[in-house]
Amino acid sequence: MAGVPLAIVGEMLGHRNPSTTQRYAHLANNVVRDALATATRRITGAGTADREQRKREQRPVFSRLSDAQWARVAPLVGTNRRPGPLVDLRGVVDAIRWIEHQDDARWSDLPPDFGKPTTCWRWAKRWQERGVWSKILSALE
User: Fold this and answer.
1) What is the distance between the alpha carbons of residues 141 and 137, in angstroms, rounded to a whole number?
2) Are residues 91 and 44 in the same domain?
3) List of residues 6+ apart from 32 with CB closer than 8 A
4) For residue 60, what is the DSSP state?
5) Do 110 and 80 sit in the same domain of this protein?
6) Rg (alpha carbons) of the chain, rounded to whole number
7) Rounded CA gap, 68 and 60, in Å?
8) With 0-12 CB in 10 A as exposed, 13-18 as middle and 19+ as buried, what is 107?
9) With CB atoms 3.0 to 4.6 Å apart as the test, which of 20, 88, 133, 137 could cross-link to 127 if both were Cys?
10) What sections of the chain are H helices per DSSP?
11) Is 111 a domain residue?
């Protein structure tokens, strides 16, 4: 009905026999178009998922700061002189590094052993605004 020859439609749909395409040729355009769009989304979505999986497999495994790395970073982060409970700043540095290591990670995805997501986010924001985070990253290279 759209002017596309049945042989081409059959080829696009993977029909081996032209009579199969003719059997469905009476369907309205929108039904065929919707079916083709659904199949296309599934095919392209599967390809994207495969590429994302390969990227995840190729990415190096995240590792926490070593004692030597922490010794270089500790003077840059200072001390936790804020009122309230003490914060493990080494864990905060690891949390920020973990977030940056992941693809599309949110602070709410942060594993609990790094600390509270809101606390880590506040320290990250503070260090980025003050230029401390770039110094931390330089010390880790």
Assistant:
1) 7
2) no
3) 9, 24
4) P
5) yes
6) 27
7) 20
8) middle
9) 133
10) 6-13, 18-24, 29-58, 67-77, 89-101, 117-129, 132-140
11) yes
Among 14, 36, 58, residue at a domain's last position: 58
* Listed residue (20, 29, 31) closest to 1, CA to CA: 29
Residues in the chain: 141
Buried b (16+ CB within 10 A) or exposed e, 58-97: eeeeeeebeeebbeebeeebeeeeeeeeebebbbbbbbbb
The reply to whether 36 and 78 lie within a common domain is no
Residues 71, 134: Cα–Cα separation, whole Å: 17
- What pTM, to 2 d.p., does this model score? 0.57
Query: pLDDT tens, 43-89?
Result: 776 666 566 666 666 667 888 999 999 999 999 987 766 677 788 89
Print the domain residue range for 32: 6-58
The fraction of the chain above a pLDDT of 90, given in percent, is 29
Residue with tokens 């995840």, as numbered in its chain: 56
| Structural contact between residues 34 and 27, judged by C-beta atoms closer than 8 angstroms | no
What DSSP state is assigned to residue 83? S
